[in-house]
Specification:
There is one protein chain. The radius of gyration is 19 Å and the shape is globular. Helices cover 79% and strands 0% of the residues. The two termini are 36 Å apart. The chain is mostly helical.
Length: 222
């Protein structure tokens, strides 16, 4: 009896933690998105870093928790793709944006943050509802979770590569002798990396909102 009670308590704590974590992350990324949208609309891309730079970097850095979650099994996320996505973003915020702040006034920086923030607001909000059961997730949010990436991923990836390229042909040349080659290596890794991430999401989309999803629903009805 005590084992059962302990198991239920553990499940409750896990769910409570994930609700809090995902809700906080959704709010943080919504703040990033709101700041970028307001400053971009009113003052232009050149002033976006003033309103969002440090906050966006901090928000993205906390995403290392995603790796911990996947590693420990707190969430059923694939470890390899999680590491890939988190690492590539950390390279952008700490390896490009931080040492070369002069690049952050580029429209590519704004489009990168908009793509990231929109993706994460959808994803984290989806996971908040998911903790209360599959039926708790509104259909429009479910659809966005597995469809918005079709547009947002290409925008985000192209913006990331553009930021690295601007660093490569600009300030990175005088930063450190090894830095340009490191950037080139990372940029080249985007060729297989982006294909892996995009293919993974396409498989998930087919499973969740495509033909495979319909077949699964029909089986449950029988």
């Amino acid at each position: 009896m005590s084992t059962k009670s302990s198991s239920q308590s553990g499940f409750g704590l896990r769910k409570a933690y994930l609700v809090a974590y995902n809700a906080a992350s959704a709010v943080a990324w919504a703040t990033v998105l709101g700041r970028v949208a307001v400053v971009l609309g009113m003052r232009g891309a050149a002033l976006v870093p003033i309103g969002v730079n440090d906050f966006a970097r901090t928000t993205q850095t906390f995403a290392v928790m995603e790796i911990f979650h996947a590693l420990t099994g707190i969430v059923p996320a694939p470890l390899f793709t999680t590491i890939m996505q988190v690492f590539s973003r950390l390279v952008l915020v700490w390896g490009i944006s931080y040492p070369f702040p002069q690049l952050n006034g580029s429209p590519w920086y704004s489009s990168m943050l908009i793509a990231w923030a929109t993706t994460e607001v959808i994803r984290y909000t989806y996971f908040v509802f998911k903790q209360f059961g599959d039926n708790a997730v509104p259909y429009f949010l479910h659809w966005l979770r597995y469809s918005a990436f079709l547009i947002l991923y290409p925008i985000g990836i192209s913006s990331e590569v553009a930021m690295m390229y601007k660093a490569l042909v600009g300030p990175a040349q005088g930063f450190a002798s090894w830095y340009p080659m490191a950037l080139i290596s990372i940029m080249l890794s985007y060729i297989p990396g982006s294909v892996i991430l995009y293919s993974h999401m396409l498989r998930q989309r087919r499973k969740q909102v495509g033909g495979a999803s319909l077949v699964e629903k029909q089986k449950k009805r029988q």
